[in-house]
């Protein structure tokens, strides 16, 4: 369904599980950034009522996820560390077409968002099926389902608002770019690392 060109090496889940405090902190900040991204999309495209309505739901869900991860961090006696940079997301962001018309910009930002959700969904699935911590395995399964829904929402809106844009071609371009990009990741205890 996701169309990813390269699956995450299962050994990444072992790396993640070896430092749960770090993976949870990174994950918390990823959720915060996802909420911020949804709000930014709203501010740039406020004329689309249906888009705003759905993105408000996503922003709220992402903030709830942030709170859920933060609660797990506290329950385990960990501390939410400082915000982490996400080099994967920053590299993916560079692939967005700068300039162009408003439709192209919206489509690219939606596809960028869909790509992050797709990879997060794939990583959460891997965590849910491989880590020994049953509480976290269940938690990541639930988040995997949520991320899949967000992915679908972003892709659907890209298609809906892609007037004059070959959305399917541009999505394939994103998939190919991300497939090459992800080869450099999967070696750190971060959600996208």
TrEMBL record:
It comes from the Bacteria. CDD domains: MiaE. SUPFAM superfamilies: Ferritin-like (SSF47240). Pfam families: MiaE. Signal peptide: none annotated. InterPro entries: Ferritin-like, Ferritin-like_SF, tRNA-Hydrxlase_MiaE. This is tRNA-(Ms[2]io[6]A)-hydroxylase.
């Amino acid at each position: 369904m996701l169309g990813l060109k390269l699956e995450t090496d299962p050994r990444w889940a072992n790396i993640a599980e070896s430092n749960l405090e770090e993976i949870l902190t990174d994950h918390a900040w990823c959720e915060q950034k996802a909420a911020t991204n949804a709000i930014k999309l709203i501010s740039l495209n406020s004329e689309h009522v249906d888009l705003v309505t759905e993105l408000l739901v996503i922003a709220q869900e992402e903030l709830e996820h942030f709170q859920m991860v933060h609660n797990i961090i506290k329950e385990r006696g960990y501390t939410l560390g400082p915000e982490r940079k996400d080099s994967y997301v920053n590299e993916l962001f560079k692939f967005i077409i700068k300039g162009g018309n408003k439709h192209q910009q919206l489509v690219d930002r939606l596809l960028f968002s869909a790509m992050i959700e797709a990879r997060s969904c794939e990583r959460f699935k891997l965590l849910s099926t491989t880590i020994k911590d049953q509480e976290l395995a269940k938690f990541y399964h639930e988040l995997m389902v949520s991320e899949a829904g967000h992915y679908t929402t972003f892709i659907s809106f890209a298609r809906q608002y892609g007037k004059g844009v070959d959305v399917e071609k541009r999505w394939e371009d994103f998939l190919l770019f991300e497939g090459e990009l992800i080869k450099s990741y999967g070696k750190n205890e971060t959600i996208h690392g």
